[in-house]
């Protein structure tokens, strides 16, 4: 007791001394940090008087230094102390002050901590649990935005799960419990969080009516709590165990749990009585402390006034002269240092500007390089894939059908490899943005399965597609990214399997309140499987599973790309695999159903009469003769009438002097490119549909292309069915009398 009074007196003297120092005196960050730690040390030691004194002192000097960070910490310390003393009014008032100053720091994770404290106040005092949830959700949102470490996210998940369980809402709690469990599995050394999670799972299963599972979880929690001498946690475990046993008709065990709860309560009550004495003593000492502060201030004012009156004039003159002389010396030194500093600053600014310009130049060069590479690689591939597709349709070349299939497969494989490398570069540069367009899931899956026909036949695999009837066919989302995800996963399943089976299963995991469907995709194969020690590394770039019995080609980019694309959808991929028995990849993506009238139908040639397009005239603008011919043959084989133009200048002239129903415009051309040509055409013809044909990444050029007046974009090489579907969608009304 004597030591506590002496320490309290020390703080009062420190506060009194502080009021007598100059207002301009600087207080170091280390001093503020020490005060902050000291105030919480007092709180944890149940020394509430000194905890409050330290926190108020910290607030006082932090405000003088305009330090919002430590001012907020001071108010948080007061809030925590008053909460321990069960003074909820003062606790909430100080927490709100802490939040006000925390927001001024603009540090998301720091603000999140204060929101979490406020949530705890509402939850621990049995107050408004909805207010607790609101503050916990704000804390979680800020922690996620601030990329806080998983340990902090774990606290948010447990807090939210706890309040949902308290509100008897186990379904809402399940999401947070699942996320918390994933984090705890990585670090099982955090005993308190492990206990809390076990308790919550037990209560969750109890509320869901699975009493045996509830008992299993609560028994684990009870054992850990007793071993760690955590009385509060042990009491909670036994309380809910007795309820679970009673619900399970095991009254003997229920009574035993009630007895244990009572024994623990007796032990805890002894500690609580001691705590109560400390609280009463603290409240008395706090009032005494506040009176001492006021007395100290009055004494300081009186002493300063008396000292000023008796001060010797000579001493004043000496002090003033010394200050003036010191000030003059400081001014001279500052002027000299300022000159050197400005010179150094000017040099550093030039270096920084040069580095900035160089970084921007390199970034532009990299973007231009990949844009050029994309165009230069895809352009000849368009010719190879297009010509091989045309030749495959020629019945006269039936004896070469297998060779042509091999040629097309090789070209498709090379295109996929190019796309993977470019996609990985864009993902690393955060250059991918999801689009929201209407699409048909059935059409997308049909195109994917048909693209694997040759490889399935080659490896003697069978592909099964199973779509739950509750899954909407017409969806709103980024169909291109979904296609890339499925192509990579299914491609691996086909490649690493021989004479086997691949199943694609699609179902509805959840329908949310806003009408969003959480659609779960599962790709299952009975191939070579993945060893457990490799199941983490396969999602790293350029990593593949080695198998001595097989020689598989590939770059190891597919799964890393899948993981990055799923991250854009706020999702992740889950793997279940056993070596020699196959693998199962699962992921979930949220989609909203689309209006049935807004989703364009896929072009189906067998439903279209041969003479349907005889009066449709299309202008093909491309500087590459091979690509011209490929596009021309594809269209003329469907009885379209085609005219060719080698560059933008010719296109402008032909559109001006002839009638066309549609223009297919290459973007990159010499002299006048596609964008310039379209801009010129729109001056005198605003009705004719113009569709861009480009081998450059669409994201890089989309705004420029659409701003020029083009109606749509087709990326080369393209799928013929989608190509024809896009053309039909944009055919002008002049061709509708066909």
From TrEMBL:
Q: Which residues carry this modification: 4-aspartylphosphate?
A: 666
Outline the extent of the Histidine kinase domain.
372-593
Cytoplasm: present as a keyword of the record?
no
Protein EC: 2.7.13.3
Ranges for domain Response regulatory come to 617-731
Q: Which InterPro entries match?
A: CheY-like_superfamily, HATPase_C_sf, HATPase_dom, His_kinase_dom, HisK_dim/P_dom, HisK_dim/P_sf, Sig_transdc_His_kin-like_C, Sig_transdc_resp-reg_receiver
The protein's name in its UniProt record? histidine kinase
What SMART domains does the annotation carry? HATPase_c, HisKA, REC, TPR
**GO MF, one example:** phosphorelay sensor kinase activity
Annotated signal sequence is 1-24
EC class, as a word, reads: transferase
- Keywords from the UniProt entry: Coiled coil, Kinase, Membrane, Phosphoprotein, Signal, Transferase, Transmembrane, Transmembrane helix
| Transmembrane residue ranges | 316-335
Q: Which reaction does it catalyse?
A: ATP + protein L-histidine = ADP + protein N-phospho-L-histidine
Q: Coiled coil where?
A: 338-365
Q: Does the keyword Endoplasmic reticulum apply?
A: no
């Amino acid at each position: 007791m004597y030591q506590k009074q002496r320490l309290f007196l020390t703080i009062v003297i420190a506060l009194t001394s502080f009021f007598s120092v100059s207002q301009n005196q600087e207080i170091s960050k280390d001093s503020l940090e020490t005060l902050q730690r000291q105030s919480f040390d007092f709180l944890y030691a149940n020394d509430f008087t000194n905890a409050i004194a330290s926190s108020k002192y910290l607030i006082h000097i932090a405000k003088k230094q305009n330090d919002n960070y430590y001012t907020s910490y001071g108010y948080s310390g007061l809030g925590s102390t008053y909460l321990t003393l069960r003074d909820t009014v003062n606790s909430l008032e100080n927490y709100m002050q802490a939040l006000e100053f925390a927001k001024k720091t603009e540090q998301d994770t720091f603000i999140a901590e204060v929101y979490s404290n406020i949530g705890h106040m509402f939850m621990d005092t049995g107050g408004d649990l909805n207010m607790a949830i609101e503050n916990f959700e704000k804390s979680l949102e800020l922690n996620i935005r601030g990329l806080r470490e998983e340990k902090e996210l774990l606290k948010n998940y447990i807090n939210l799960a706890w309040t949902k369980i308290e509100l008897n809402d186990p379904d809402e709690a399940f999401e947070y419990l699942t996320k918390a469990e994933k984090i705890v599995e990585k670090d099982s050394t955090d005993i308190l969080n492990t206990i809390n999670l076990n308790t919550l799972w037990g209560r969750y299963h109890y509320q869901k009516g699975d009493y045996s599972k509830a008992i299993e979880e609560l028994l684990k929690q009870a054992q850990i709590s007793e071993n760690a001498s955590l009385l509060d946690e042990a009491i909670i475990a036994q309380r809910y165990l007795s309820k679970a046993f009673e619900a399970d008709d095991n009254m003997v065990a229920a009574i035993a749990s009630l007895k244990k709860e009572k024994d623990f309560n007796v032990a805890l009550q002894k500690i609580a009585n001691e705590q109560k004495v400390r609280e009463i003593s603290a409240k008395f000492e706090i009032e005494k402390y506040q009176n001492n502060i006021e007395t100290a201030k009055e004494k300081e004012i009186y002493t300063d006034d008396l000292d000023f009156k008796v001060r010797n004039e000579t001493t004043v003159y000496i002090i003033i002269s010394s200050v003036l002389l010191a000030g003059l010396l400081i001014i001279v030194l500052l002027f000299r240092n300022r000159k050197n500093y400005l010179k150094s600053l000017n040099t550093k600014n030039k270096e920084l500007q040069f580095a900035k310009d160089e970084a921007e130049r390199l970034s532009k060069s990299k973007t231009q390089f990949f844009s050029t590479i994309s165009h230069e690689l895809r352009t000849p591939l368009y010719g190879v894939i297009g010509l091989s597709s045309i030749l495959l349709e020629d019945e006269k070349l039936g004896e070469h059908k297998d060779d042509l299939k091999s040629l097309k497969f090789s070209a498709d494989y090379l295109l996929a490899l190019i796309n993977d490398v470019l996609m990985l570069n864009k993902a690393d540069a955060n250059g991918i943005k999801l689009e929201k367009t209407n699409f048909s899931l059935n059409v997308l899956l049909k195109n994917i399965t048909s693209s694997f026909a040759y490889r399935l036949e080659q490896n003697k695999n069978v592909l099964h597609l199973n779509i739950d009837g509750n899954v909407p066919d017409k969806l709103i989302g980024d169909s291109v990214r979904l296609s890339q995800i499925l192509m990579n996963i299914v491609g691996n399943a086909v490649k690493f399997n021989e004479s086997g089976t691949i199943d694609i299963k699609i179902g509805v995991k959840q329908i949310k309140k806003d009408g969003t469907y959480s659609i779960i995709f599962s790709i299952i194969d009975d191939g070579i499987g993945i060893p457990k020690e490799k199941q983490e590394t396969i999602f790293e770039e350029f990593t593949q599973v080695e198998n001595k019995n097989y020689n598989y080609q590939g770059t190891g980019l597919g799964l890393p790309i899948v993981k990055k694309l799923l991250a854009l959808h706020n999702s992740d991929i889950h793997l279940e695999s056993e070596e020699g028995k196959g693998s199962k990849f699962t992921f979930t993506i949220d989609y909203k159903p689309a209006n049935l009238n807004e989703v364009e139908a896929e072009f189906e040639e067998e439903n279209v009469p041969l003479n349907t397009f005889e009066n449709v005239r299309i202008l093909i603008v491309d500087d590459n003769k091979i690509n011209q011919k490929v596009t021309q043959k594809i269209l003329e084989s469907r009885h379209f009438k085609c005219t060719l133009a080698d560059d933008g200048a010719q296109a402008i002239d032909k559109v001006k002097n002839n009638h066309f129903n549609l223009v297919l415009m290459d973007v990159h051309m010499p002299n006048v490119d596609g964008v310039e040509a379209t801009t010129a055409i729109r001056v005198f013809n605003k009705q004719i549909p113009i569709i861009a044909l480009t081998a450059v990444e669409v994201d890089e050029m989309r705004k420029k292309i659409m701003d020029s007046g083009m109606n749509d974009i087709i990326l080369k090489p393209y799928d013929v069915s989608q190509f024809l579907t896009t053309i039909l969608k944009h055919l002008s009304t002049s061709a509708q009398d066909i």
